[in-house]
Design brief:
By secondary structure, the chain is mainly β. The protein has a single domain, classed as Roll (SH3 type barrels).
């Protein structure tokens, strides 16, 4: 699967309002590759103030980190794979 297809799949899951939990693997800025359970469409701790920038303009996706208990950003450019409903989707190394 192309990285762009995987990124559009994540963006579609982000817009799903059911708070789906998926497993995602991506490379952090430090180069460390992490696999975490992430959740989209959560409202815990949301004040309604909003962000000072648009994450999609920077190819970032906000998610709720189930391990660390807080909101984080995932880069769509460094996304390696996701697992949704038991099916793993892996991005090709070269796009």
């Amino acid at each position: 699967m192309k990285k762009s297809e995987l990124a559009s799949m994540v963006m579609g899951l982000k817009d799903d309002k059911h708070g789906r939990i998926i497993s995602a693997t991506w490379a952090k800025k430090s180069g460390e590759v992490v696999t975490r359970p992430v959740r989209f469409a959560t409202s815990k701790g949301i004040t309604g103030k909003g962000m000072k920038f648009n994450p999609s303009e920077r190819k970032l996706v906000p998610y709720y980190d189930m391990y660390r208990g807080g909101y984080r950003m995932m880069s769509l450019d460094s996304l390696k794979s996701i697992r949704v409903d038991g099916i793993e989707y892996v991005a090709d190394e070269e796009d």
